[in-house]
Amino acid sequence: QDVPRAIKLLLCIVELGQLDPDDFDPGELAEFEAICLLGELLDAWLQPFINVDLSLSEQVESLITFSHLLAALYKANGTSFLPSQLYGDLQITVKNAILMVPKTRLVNGELKVFICLLGDDVLETLFGRSRMIGGHSPNSSVTELQNRFNSAMNLDYIYEQHPEWERKPRRLSMFRMRHVDHLRPENFKAELRADSCNLQACWKAG
Fold this sequence. Notes:
The longest helix is centred in the N-terminal third of the chain and has 25 residues, at 26-50. This protein has helices at residues 3-15, 26-50, 56-77, 84-107, 121-134, 142-161, 199-205. The two termini are 31 Å apart. It contains seven helices and no strands. It has a domain at 116-187. It is an all-alpha fold.
């Protein structure tokens, strides 16, 4: 699965909406309007996960916009637009992302909410470190795998306390499209505190 290439393709669809439609005939104009609508949907879905400059409120607002557009298109076109299972999965993903805000607020409103952690990058890191711990023995029993996971989680804790100790890949950069699926919490610099997000205002704006 080439996630960065897929994201690049979706962003290209979004950029098609910037074309000048003045020279389009009626048929091309209808297709262009459909592409623009699809581009708006895709952009609302992608930005919260790949745009490190968005605040938590902007991320939530974008996801709500995506959810509303998706619901409208699915209601109008049904499974000819997308499979019902995929529709359900996407809406559940949006719900889970938004529910992270009130859940975090119940614990401590000053804590930051990282929607990017909904992905599997954390699991990739865990499995990568457990394989590193195994050295030249990549295969393991269940008990050995458990021990490796324990060691990998200890490493996570150590690196969290001393991030300067972690030797990160030199060629991994969030500015490269092929690494956009490896964005981590430290890459996001905007306001992400749970208390900073007004869900009702985001709902109305989205």
